[in-house]
Amino acid sequence: MTDNTVYSNPLITRYASRAMAENFSDDKRFKLWRKLWIALAESEMELGLNVTKEQVDELKKYADDINYEAAEAYERKVRHDVMAHVHAYGDQAKDAAGIIHLGATSCFVDCNSELIIMHDALDIIKAKLVNVMDKLRSFALKYKSLPTLGFTHLQPAQLTTVGKRATLWLQDLEMDYNDLENLYAQFKLRGVKGTTGTQASFMELFDGDENKVKELEKRVVEKLGYDKVYGVTGQTYPRKFDYNVLCVLSQIAQSAYKFSNDIRILQNMKEVEEPFESTQIGSSAMAYKRNPMRSERIGSLARYVISLPTNTAITASTQWFERTLDDSANRRIVIAQAFLALDGILNIYMNVSENLVVYDKVIAKHIVAELPFMATENIMMECVKAGGNRQELHERIRVLSMEAGKNVKELGKENNLIELIKADEMFAPVHDKLDEILDASKFIGRAPSQVEEFISEEIDPILEKNKSLLGQKGDVKV
Questions:
Q1: What CA–CA distance (Å, rounded) separates 39 from 388?
Q2: pLDDT per residue as tens digits for the range 282-311
Q3: What are the start-end ranges of the H helices in 354-474?
Q4: H or E element: which one contains 283?
Q5: Residue 283 catalytic?
Q6: What is the DSSP string of 60-79?
Q7: How far apart are CA 280 and CA 277, in angstroms?
């Protein structure tokens, strides 16, 4: 039952998925510690240290059976979380108690487990990222030819298409995906480095045999499913890697934020709308409202994630010499919460992107209000072809455009530029061609082709590579 008398983290209760919350749980963390201790002991046994198979088997027996009460009692006593769990593990695996953590420092379990947790968290993020891309792909192709007003400076500009605009959102995510792939390519474990990274304790255990020390690290890392380690470390892996990770998370959040802002503006214009459920309430006071709460929530969480790389930059820059412990409490908060928040963002992004509602008649109405101004160049050129004077036509259409603009802005009426042109004999050569000239599809350039080419050449290869991850749906908890 929920304890409503203490603070509850909304990232867990409202936004992030169960999978991401479990990934950063103490249970996963401490089970990874035991997996690391087993890998270390087994590798030390294989390389000839005084560790028996029976001791390793006993460690494996209790790998997932963590005696939390004992660990918590030890920590209250010794004020050291790793040693508390060493003692608690030893209480269960009594014959192996003396060889747990042999030669290691706390960061052997801390750093390696944290890196594995981040790697698994990136896998969750990657799956959701490509699913958002897949949903936007479908949307872009569906509306690749639907003309809509383009906007520069948030002012009506040349036409684009609804699908072409979606490719801009997609391209942001493609860049994020590539950055994420680069992060994977850089991924390494801390390995088995000892207290200050020199491996001195392991050199002592193996009587100065460097090859065995190197082989120990190789075997431990392989048992954990990895093949790369940092060549040199202090006591910890480089905290700059945390910054690199959060920069990629921030970049994905930036892309989501941009999308959410565009949807909020489009919803204000009543052109495109995020999903709104039949029982959903938009406002406690104004019952008619359909507030874009999903997009607003994306923006709210994204703002938080975007702010976090600065925190990790400060941590990386203040690690004195081989390490300082003022990173620990900070990192327990910032890394997990960055992933939890972005997980929540992508959950909503999936939900919105696969359920967008497009109001094509409203879009067409907005085009009609602006297209006459955009079509003046085409109208003028057709009249020149029929023998008209370009400069005289330009001046006349300028005067009519000012009159139509006044009709719209000062009198609040419809744009009547076309009616004014139809009533002006100077433009008689195009009077019977105006419907053709004002066909919105003639003002979208290569937008439909650009959508098809971009998706087939850049997006589809990514989705094909990750097709086993596709099929997820966004979940909005509350």
A1: 87
A2: 554 554 557 899 999 999 999 999 999 999
A3: 360-374, 376-385, 390-409, 417-422, 434-437, 447-454, 460-465
A4: none
A5: yes
A6: HHTTT---HHHHHHHHHHHS
A7: 5
Could you count the other beta carbons within 10 Å of the beta carbon of residue 414?
12
For the chain, the C-alpha Rg in angstroms (whole number) is 31
Mean pLDDT, residues 55-78 taken together: 97
Residue 271: closest CA among 374, 142, 148: 148
Residues 222, 223, 226, 232, CA torsion sign? negative
Burial pattern 70-96, b for ≥16 Cβ within 10 A else e, equals bbeebbeeeeebbbbbbbbbbebbeeb
Q: Give dist(CA 322, CA 235) in Å, integer.
A: 6
Average the pLDDT over 436-465 and give the result: 96
User: What distance in Å separates the CA atoms of residue 240 and residue 246, rounded to the nearest whole number?
Assistant: 10
For residues 347 and 259, give the distance between their C-alpha atoms in angstroms, rounded to a whole number. 14
Residue 364 tokens, joined: 């067409």
Give 346's Cβ-side CA count (13 Å radius): 30
For residue 339, with 0-12 CB atoms within 10 Å meaning exposed, 13-18 middle and 19 or more buried, which class applies? buried
CA–CA separation, 4 and 478 (whole Å): 17
Strands in 12-100 per DSSP E: none
Residues 6+ apart with CB under 8 A from 423: none
* pLDDT above 90 (res 476): no
d(CA 52, CA 446): 71
DSSP state, 6? S
Given 8, 138, 283, 456, which residue is catalytic?
283
Q: Residue 172: is its pLDDT beyond 90? A: yes
Q: Indicate if the alpha-carbon torsion angle 253, 335, 89, 196 is positive or negative.
A: positive
DSSP 326: G
DSSP string over 182-223: HHHHH--B--S--SSSS-HHHHHHTTT-HHHHHHHHHHHHHH
Q: Which two tokens stand for residue 42?
A: 């087994």
Report the residue count for the chain: 478
Asked if residue 147 lies in contact with residue 442, where contact means CB atoms within 8 angstroms, the answer is: no
Q: Which neighbouring-strand residues pair with 159?
A: 149
Spatial CA neighbour of 22 closest among 69, 247, 31, 164:
31
Among 135, 142, 121, 146, which residue's Cα sits nearest to residue 169? 135
Q: Which residue has the tokens 């097709």?
A: 467
Count of C-beta atoms within a 10 Å radius of residue 277: 8
Least confident of 157-161, 195-199, 368-372: 368-372
Catalytic residue among 153, 278, 284, 468: 153
